[in-house]
Amino acid sequence: MRVVVSGRWSSVQDLPTLLVAQLTGIGICPIIVKHNFKRLWEKFGRVLWCRIVHVVSIKPCGIEGAFWVLCFIFLRVIGKKVIVHWIGTDVLELTPSFGYWFSKLGSVHLSQAPWLVEELGAKGVKSTWIPILPSLSAVHKPLPETLTVLTYLGGDESRNDFYGKNEAEKLIRGFPDVNFLILGRVSEEDKLDLPNANYLGFVEHKGMGDVYSSSTVLLRLTKHDGLSLMVLEALNHGRYVIWTKDFPYCYMVENSSEAKEYLEMLRGVRLINEGGLKLIDNDFNNIKWANKLVGVYREVVGDKC
Fold first, then answer.
1. C-beta of residue 142 within 8 angstroms of C-beta of residue 152
2. Taking Cα atoms as reference points, which of 227, 258, 225 lies closest to residue 242?
3. Which CATH class is domain 148-283?
4. What is the tens place of the pLDDT at every residue in 169-226?
5. Proportion of the chain in helix, strand, coil states, percent, rounded to 5
6. Which distant-in-sequence residues (6+ apart) come within 8 Å of 67 by Cβ?
7. CA–CA dist 191, 176 (Å, integer)
8. How many angstroms separate the CA atoms of 31 and 273, rounded?
9. pLDDT tens, residue by residue, 23-49
10. Do the domains spanning 2-135+285-301 and 148-283 agree at the CATH topology level?
11. Fewer CB within 10 A of the end CB, N or C, for the chain?
12. What sign has the CA pseudo-torsion 61, 63, 66, 68?
């Protein structure tokens, strides 16, 4: 079966590439294209070649939202099946009026996280939870000798509040004896001049294993979220997670005050998060979820095999 995967890229989650990796080798022939106008005729030829266009995250509002409505109308006219995969921020940005059009024009809508199914439903889009996952294989490395907190605070200034920068910095100041590993491109003027604030910048995915192994807990104080790959990877390494979402084997908090209590509790912990390891092993096998996605593809195009 021939599928074109079109997606938005970010430095944090390269979900389109992960999706192609999941599909390769299980009876699907995926071709990946980016959401831009470069080499447009080549991309058009790839769309004509395929049976399904699987779109990973869109800008569902304003001029870009109107552009996607036109794209989906065009794809329907030429007989292509469109699958829209909603990731997180795109659900937050979606307006009910655009939700109406996308619900009519998409053949199938999928959600990266189970709670996004409910959020999309409130905006008129019926979806099914099928996550895009990295290859996860349990890592049983011991926790560091002293409490070490990993967090992500990157992005431009407009995203600081979204990633809970101010709340995280309260904890960095409040725990001077705790080492904080801070991922993301943070400008020099935004960096805290504190000995326990260690800014790692952007780390390639192949180097993230060492980062997770150097930490005790992942701190994620986002205002809104999909199914964070950082959370899954931290659990895959047997690390603890403090998150603003209700998720198995994670500590759910709303602010830094609540997170403070869990950090105090984790000061002396020596055992890895075995429950998180089992969760990843049992429920987040990427081949299992890829096969479920293939089932969606076959249903959409009417294949019986």
1. no
2. 258
3. alpha beta
4. 999 999 999 999 999 888 888 899 999 999 999 898 889 999 999 999 999 999 999 9
5. 40, 20, 40
6. none
7. 15
8. 38
9. 877 777 777 777 666 777 777 788 888
10. yes
11. C
12. negative
Measure the CA–CA gap between 221 and 209, rounded to whole angstroms.
21
Burial pattern 197-211, b for ≥16 Cβ within 10 A else e, equals bebbeeeeeeebeeb
> The domain at 2-135+285-301 falls in which architecture?
3-Layer(aba) Sandwich (3.40)
C-alpha distance from residue 66 to each of 72, 160, 237, 291 (Å): 10, 28, 42, 33
**Residue spans per domain, the chain:** 2-135+285-301, 148-283
SS3 for 210?
Answer: helix
Hey, which residues does 180 pair with through a beta bridge?
149, 197
Q: Which run of H or of E encompasses 291? A: helix 286-301
Can you give the C-alpha Rg of the chain in angstroms? 20
Residue 293's Cβ-side half-sphere holds a number of Cα atoms within 13 Å equal to 33
pTM greater than 0.70: yes
Tokens coding 288: 């299992």
